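[User]
If only I could read C-alpha cells as easily as an amino acid sequence. I have put the entry right below:
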Amino acid sequence: MRQVFLLIGGLLVLAGSAQAAFGSDAVTGAARVIDGDTLAIQGVRVRLWAVDAPEIDQTCRSAAGLTWPCGLAAAEVLKERLRGQFVTCWRRDTDRYGRMVATCTVGTTDVGAWLLINGWAVTYWREVPAYSDLEHMAKSNKAGIWSSRFAAPSEWRRAQK
C-alpha cells in the first residue's frame, strides 16, 4: 500500500510540474474522447503522452475465451472519467499526424497515469519509470485489459496494415 501512495504522490508531482516544464503551450476545456488515448479540446487533437490504449476496433479475449471490444471499452471508460470535467493538456511534442502530444490533467489527476493504473492502456515509452510501475500494478491486479489476453496496441496496428 505504501508503494501505491508513493507512486500516486510522484504522479501528482509529475502532473503539477507539467505546467512549469511546458509553459503556456497548453489547451484547456471540455474534452471529447476520440479513442482511449486521444482527445479533442477546443478543436485541438491531443494524443496522451507515453500511453497507448487499445484501438477502437481492437478486441481482447477473456479468460473464458470470449472476445470483447476492449478498445471501445477503454474509450468509454475514459469518456465517463472526463465527463463534465475541464481537462488541461501541456504540449510535449507534435506527432507525425500533427496532433499535440501532451500530458493532460483533470484537477491534480494525470489522465495517462489514471488510464495505466486502471488497466486501460499500456506504456508507450518504457523510459517513464513511474508509468511503467503503474502498468505493472494494473497487470498484477488484472485491471481493465489485463484481465484478458490482448495484443499490444502497437502490434495490433501493425497487424492491421
Notes: The longest strand covers residues 26-35. Residues 2-6, 13-22 have pLDDT under 50 and may be disordered. Residues 2-149 form a domain with the OB fold (Dihydrolipoamide Acetyltransferase, E2P) fold (CATH 2.40.50.90). The longest helix spans residues 2-22.
